[in-house]
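Recall the central idea of this unit: under ordinary conditions, the amino acid sequence of a chain determines the structure it adopts. In this exercise we apply that idea directly, starting from the sequence alone.
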Amino acid sequence: MPRLLVTVCFFFVYAGAFAQLRLPAVLSSNMVLQRNATVKLWGWAGPGEKIIVRLPWSKKVDTVVTSRDARWSIDVQTPEAGGPYTIALDGRTSVKLENVLIGEVWVCSGQSNMEWSGNHGLKDIKAELPSCADNNIRFFHVPKTTAAYPQDDVKATWTACDSNTLKSFSAVAYFFGKKLKKELNVPVGLINSSWGGTPAEVWTPAELVQGDEKLKSAAAKLAPSNGWPFTPGSSYNAMIAPLTPFRVAGAIWYQGESNVNTAYGYTQLFNTMIGSWRKAWGYDFPFYYVQIAPFRYTPGQKAALLREAQTASLQYPRTGMAVITDLVDDTTNIHPQNKHDVGLRLANWALGDAYGKPGLAYKSPLYEKMEQQKGKIVLYFTNAEGGLKTSGGKATQFFIAGPDKQFVPADVKLEGNKAIVSAKTVKQPEAVRFSFSNAGMGNVFNGAGLPLNPFRTDNWEE
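Accordingly, the structure predicted from this sequence is:
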């Protein structure tokens, strides 16, 4: 009889523990929920267990019954920005989510230039530390993890921005979020899910890479490293998939350096990745990214081709690209130190494009078309408000070629949204290139001071 009693007691203790109400890490105290949106709350409990959800901004009490698979989820409506709030969830056990804010939430991902932080010696961050404390900027830093299949949780916590939490957080993400918070006057939540060295394949579901011959072939050329994964889907499964039920306003991305050797497939890969994220989240959120910076890659023009591939992704819906050719002080350093202005340019994309803030210049000039006119080529550009101009002296990094495909430095005359390009030694010009090299840094800008995007008018094989 005593043994039976012990067994019965053990069974009920075990069953009770097994049925404990649980939530994923991203749904926790100190989080930021997306404002004015239908957001999902979800987690685990005992099969058939009724979960009661009490939201402090609503008079309504919401309930949901846990499925036979021990999972539950419920959609709730969030109000305008505000807080802090306490959300109460009750089943057989209870959970309280405290110090919750309502605001704008962004995913920040990519490789090392997104990951780079104060711990990497960035002067921009060191200067911020004495005054960076802000309870209305919250961080969620996903640790580096891989998985063979999509996971349902990560090991991370929400924290407020202060001189300790900022040191290890993405500098680009921080400056992006700081600008949004200032201009929108709402709390901002930043989810940093980045890993230095990673190619875009690891952030893309494996079946989408392996199921396409072009992408599969490019992925097979990735060079293994001891510092980061290269298996398609491995970072997506562990560092993105668990976040996809969590409502976000959009994503920012800084990556591409590890794909320069397979630039020919990057546009398709990148578009596929963006599309897969949007499909997983269930809506077409804005996606803004940084064009890779000038750097002395060797050999060839592989970085120029990667930038060209990134530019082509601007045709994909709801995307935007920050050009940063003017923000580099050392082309032998693949990690430019100026992360402040990179974050600001991404923020201006979000403010102008996603949030509709008027009067913001956030688009770099882009090559539109060319005309051949009596030994010259006339180039036309979009986003050239205020007219094209140099930062000093003659326009540089323009090259022109004739039928022999031999490019020589060009003479350039800037007129409004046009550039008239010629060279005395090229009598029949056929093509123009601007800053189309690994480390080229041009000096042409629009009236708002945004640099002209590198381009070529030809499609000659490199």
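DSSP finds ten helices and 23 strands in the chain.
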